[in-house]
Amino acid sequence: MSKTEAMIQVPERKKRVYLSEDFKIDTWETIQPYFEELKSRAINSVEELEKWMKDRSELESVLSEDLGWRYIRMTCDTQNEDITKAFQYFVSEIEPQIAPYDHELNLKLMHSPYVAGLDKDKYRIYLRGVERALEIFREENIPLNTEISTKQQQYAAITGAMTVTLDGEEMTLQRAADRLKRNERAVREEAWRAIQERRTQDRQKLDDLFDELLKLRTQLAKNADFDNYRDYMFAAMGRFDYTPQGCFDFHKSIEETIVPVLTGIDRERKEKLGIADLRPWDLDVDPSGKAPLEPFTSGEELLEKTIQVFYNLDTYLGDCLATMREMGHLDLESRKGKAPGGYNYPLDEIGVPFIFMNATSSLRDVITMLHEGGHAVHSFLTRDLTLGAFKHPPSEVAELASMSMELISMDYWDTFFTDEDELRRAKRTHLESVLETFPWVATVDKFQHWLYENSTHTQEERHQEWLNIFERFNHLEVNWSGLEKYKPFIWQKQLHIYEVPFYYVEYAMAQLGAIAVWKNYKENPTEGLAAYKRALSLGYTVSIGEVYEAAGIKFDFSTEYIKSLVDFVKGEMANI
């Protein structure tokens, strides 16, 4: 029996202490008594305060998991009205009722005479976050948050319905994008133009949707006494470790150190392809002229091979994904009506997350699976931490888990690519995409700063600023002649701008960290992997810098540090 067929012990949900085992979330009336009890409970010692914190965490975990399943089901089938209504009910009827209680409970915690007696090492990060939440809470923002959540759902509905027809076959944009890897240039161009034309059909709808979100988010920030929504989000996301200026400096370092490297790679690509002009549909094809890599043919095969890769790395890692398969916590294949993108959704009560993605048959899908698998491992490593809040580190740490997994697993990619030449192609392609992460993230992040610093801008001004930023960072060798009408709207494909604003620069920060983790792993696989797991198991009980330190790396975004790690990647690429 292979490792991937080994018997897996499916974890049971932890026994509830505060809530009854048969507690179900139907209406707000079934939940409110628990919040009222927590609000009114007398606390007469440090021990009683800790018990109160754990009871509150249990309630929050149950609510979070219930919302999680509603979101998962909705993204798996965006066209099912009943499923969408179930999610919307929670967002519109339950979440707004919870928010005032959250504020009251935060006040109760911080005003308790016993809070000073809590273990400072254990709770300092958590209490810091509670203090920040109290600072930015405004009751008038509760209905605004509900309206924003409802508006954000429209993005998935609009983009999830996008399909194109090629060679008589209707397909999702993700599946159509696989043709951009085909050797026939005419096929690539046809697919690229079809995708852009389909996006263009909804460009006004998406522009108008963003206008509505911009207005609501700006009002939210002003209500909380912030100059703009960017500053509000830095507070709301708990960005204690860096400032907006730090982001601008990071953008500049990326422009100076990485953009020139990628420009050189694009020049090589043009020469290898033997073309006079590099066009947007020439960026994903293998310049060697060989057929596109096809590492799997079904979602089931993708999962089976990924589990094997994880087992080859470490038994614990393999067990994580095998457990998820046993529990049915994966939906991997692309299909019509499914929301775009991919995610790992932590489920706090059961402690076993759910992976969602839109696989077709490409190398990109393998990377996405490894990426989300890294997030999943993180969920497993933190599932036994005392409070739910401990299990949710900021994305600078969360993305370190996922991006590191992409790289440290490379030694075992022969599971997907048995041919040596294909294996080399896959590794080189991925390392190029690792470098490409940086300018794209800088583009999106810089754009978001501008959007909210200039919240009264017009749609035309928005399009022009996007062009200004895009053309500084992205594929300077590409000829867009005749395609100019598409460029102002490229940002609309980035769901983060609509659904999770400002959650993006962390990808580049974590990508740097992941390269450093990989470097450590290459130098000493045993200690490198142990440090990776050790860091992730800390969850959010220590600062970002302390997590990185536990992983044996630095939280550093200076030009010098970036250059040293980029040089390491270039060296690895040369040795493939």
Task: Give a short synopsis of this structure.
With 576 residues, the chain is mainly α. The chain is 63% helix and 4% strand.
Shape: globular
Q: Taking all residues together, what is the mean pLDDT?
A: 95
Q: Write out the strand line-up for the largest beta sheet, numbering strands in chain order.
A: 3-5-4
Percent range for helical residues? 55-70%
Summarize the structure in words.
This protein is mainly α and 576 residues long. It has helices at residues 28-40, 46-76, 81-111, 120-136, 141-160, 173-177, 185-201, 203-223, 229-236, 244-257, 259-273, 299-313, 315-327, 363-382, 395-408, 420-453, 459-473, 495-499, 505-523, 525-536, 544-550, 559-575, and strands at residues 163-166, 169-172, 330-333, 343-345, 354-359. Strand 1 (163-166) and strand 2 (169-172) form a beta hairpin. Helix 10 (244-257) crosses helix 22 (559-575). The protein is globular. The model has no long low-confidence stretch (mean pLDDT 95).
Task: List the topology elements.
Blueprint: H1 28-40, H2 46-76, H3 81-111, H4 120-136, H5 141-160, E1 163-166, E2 169-172, H6 173-177, H7 185-201, H8 203-223, H9 229-236, H10 244-257, H11 259-273, H12 299-313, H13 315-327, E3 330-333, E4 343-345, E5 354-359, H14 363-382, H15 395-408, H16 420-453, H17 459-473, H18 495-499, H19 505-523, H20 525-536, H21 544-550, H22 559-575
Parallel strand pairs: 3-5
Antiparallel strand pairs: 1-2, 4-5
Helix pairs in contact: 1-3, 2-3, 3-4, 3-5, 5-8, 8-9, 10-16, 10-22, 12-13, 14-15, 15-19, 16-17, 16-19, 19-20, 19-22, 20-21
